[in-house]
Amino acid sequence: MQLVKDMRRIIKNYNLLNHNTFGIEVFTDFFFAFTDIVELKAFLKNDLYEHLEKRVLGGGSNVLFIDNFHGAVIHPICNRIEVKKKDTETILIKADAGLNWDTFVEQCINNEWFGLENLSGIPGSVGASPIQNIGAYGVEVKDFIYKVEGVNLETHEIDYFYKDNCKFGYRTSIFKQELKDKYVITAVFFKLKRKENLQISYAMVQEELKKYPQQNAANLRKAILDIRAQKLPKIEEMPNAGSFFKNPVISEEKFQQLKISYQDLPSYPELDHKVKIPAGWLIEKCGLKGYQNGNTAVHDKQALVLINKGSATGADILRLADKIAEKVKTDFGIELEKEVNVFP
Ligand code: EPU
To answer: I want to staple 34 with a disulfide (CB 3.0 to 4.6 A). Which of 39, 174, 289, 322 is the partner?
Structure first.
């Protein structure tokens, strides 16, 4: 699927089909792509568009479209990378919001700026990465974020959010909570390492990396891409939005109860006597891995991924998601929370 990148105009009645990895067709009344803050501010201040409801759309890889949008979609296509500061240990990089995330990760490794290797292969844009604090294989993007630059949709001012003010958590941040739809993230500042320090705590990653002659960042990236290719469906072949649900966090007590019936229940310890358990495992245990219904399906290699098999609508995917959540609730007494954002 070719996602539209190079477009600066304001377009009326715009089809968002190529702006979401679920491959769902909806229309927005206005679509505006900006290459820098000056363009963005000019758009926000323009009398013609000032009154409109506004939403930001990055790579569209974590969104489920369910209806047309009667407002303006703002799409960052700014794509500069700038070195702001460096010392012997670290380097501070400013990366524009419109950069493709994985291209950015690749460039960092090529430039010997280290830390983001485990986040290789994640679809989406740099600007979206802090919103849900993307994470994979023992690394979260918050581990390397220094600050986030954004333009306030009401005041049109540029504000900076230092890491400690971003309220980062598991697949969440201030931008998904109280500041939801209030800012256009325009750039992210990353503090990266100048020396390799591979994060290979996951057994699966260690195993895959053994296949390479050297344990270095470039090979770690390859290993991660290989692991992802084994489990996760290609967007071009099976449109999807990665994990559809978050892994639920339950009480230690509830976990111990479940463990009596399910000795093989995998778990990851959390703070405050809580335990995180994989939603993919729960869905598989419910017998829904590989389940198909019309134009929708649960991926047969990773049950956390829902697929548009053809011309599914957002409502079709939501129906499948509801069915899954209901079954997990009935069988395990656990509520699943969506990871993807429903739009509008
Ligand atoms: N599992 C099953 N059946 C399944 C899927 C998973 O039993 O169908 C079990 C696995 O055997 C394993 C456990 O669940 O014991 C965890 O599976 P996996 O390593 O595939 O990771 P996950 O918890 O399902 C999370 C992230 C992914 C990230 C991987 C790797 C969430 C919601 N998802 O998935 O992120 O790539 O870990 O670190 O936290 C995303 O956010 O879109 C995403 C793909």
So the answer is: 39
Q: Does domain 240-337 have CATH number 3.30.70.1350?
A: no
- Could you give the CA distance from residue 154 to residue 209 in angstroms, rounded to a whole number? 48
* pLDDT < 70 positions in the chain: 1-8
The structure's pTM equals 0.95
Note the pLDDT tens digit of each residue in 172-197. 999 999 999 999 999 999 999 999 99
Q: By the 8 A CB rule, do 126 and 145 touch?
A: no
Cα–chain-centroid distance for residue 14? Answer: 24
CA quadruple 318, 320, 323, 324: dihedral positive or negative? negative
* pLDDT at site 1: 40
Query: From 3.30.465.10, 2.30.38.10, 3.40.50.300, 3.40.50.11540, which CATH number describes the 81-204 domain?
Result: 3.30.465.10
188/144 Cα distance (integer angstroms): 10
**Ligand 1 pocket residues where CB is under 6 Å:** 136-137, 231, 242-243, 246-247, 266, 278, 280-281, 284, 289, 302-304, 339
Report, as residue numbers or ranges, the catalytic residues: 171, 243, 339
Query: Does domain 7-76 fall into CATH 3.30.43.10?
Result: yes
Whether residue 243 contacts residue 279, with contact meaning beta carbons closer than 8 Å, is answered with yes
